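Final report, Chapter 2: Outcomes

The project's central promise was a pipeline that accepts a single protein chain and returns its three-dimensional structure in a standardized token representation, suitable for archiving and comparison. That pipeline is now operational. To close this chapter, we reproduce one record exactly as it appears in the project archive, with the input sequence first and the structure output second.
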Amino acid sequence: MIYVTLAIAVAALACSIVALIASRKKDIVVKETTVKVEHAPVEHPFTYDKERTTYTLNGSLHVTGEVSALEKGGEK
């Protein structure tokens, strides 16, 4: 029984060493991106992102009724 445990321990050690060597060989490249965000006037609680063409709400939103959004080009 001790030989089986020893064999499993040696196999686990070998696997961990191989994994450690394999992980060091890979080069990790981190791509940094810069996003320009324009802020609306103070009375407007949204931030507009030109790159994504989206608005983000600054803060929280409490709704007691319904929330709907118009499709792009829809009537206001």
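Archive annotation: The mean pLDDT is 76.
This record, like all others produced under the grant, will remain available to the consortium after the project formally closes.
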